[in-house]
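seq:
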Amino acid sequence: MSSLTLPHPAGLLRLSDLLLLLVAMVWGTSYGIAKGALNYYPVLGFLAIRFLLTFALLAPTLLNISAPARRDALLAGLPLGGLMLGIFICETFGVAMTQAANAAFLISLCIVMTPFVEWWLLHRRPATPAFVFAGVSLLGALLLGGGLEARFGLGDLLMLGAALLRAITVCLTSKLTQGRQVAPLALTAVQAGIIGCGSLLLAWLSPQGLPAMPVDSGFWLATAYLVLGCTIFAFFAQNWALRHSSPTRVSLLTGSEPVFGALFAVFWLGETLSPIARLGGALIVLSALWAARHKAI
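struct:
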């Protein structure tokens, strides 16, 4: 099979790259923000609040589009929302059950998996440099995370599952939106609705149930940031970028997320980075910049 060559104008590709780097930036900050919010409310309940609020804000986009566009958004958004619900559940519980270094490294396996999943699902082989950049990013993630612990348990398997689901979701988003009138905000609304309703159902079925919603302003400020920045903007930008870029390129650029997370931890949370971790971050950044220069990826 021949390597994928993007037919889209260079201007759209550059805009797509910029948006994806901004997505990586806000996602990188999300872990610290979400950790603070989880001090007030359990995981599944928090996910339900976050994504049902997102759906409520975006629901008008579903009502203000044509019937064919609404149908296409539902056809694409329902399966993609189910996959994303699986990602958030695996990530959230995986992080709680494994070492932070293991979690950071294993979720970064998405970068390496995506070219192969794209080849498998979309029947197109990414350009050879994509595999090289993916390997460099993976090495950077390993160094940034401080190395992989020898023990491998259920939490590690959940993070590995989340990485695979991420790769599949990116590729399926590209596949399911091709040739359809799928407005990115409408698609984001459907995805958020599925994640929110699924989280709420699982929370109700759990033995702990759902406590009363918190009233602390810190919880709601964190939730507002995650809803507006890490969900509405990030999902919209990624869904739009996949109309103008390849899944492998999207994965490589958003794969710089751990770097922004580390910078956020240093400048906002007061943590420190070892020289090895700094080298890992530099490798991820260089890989993303090299990928952005190769329009064939």
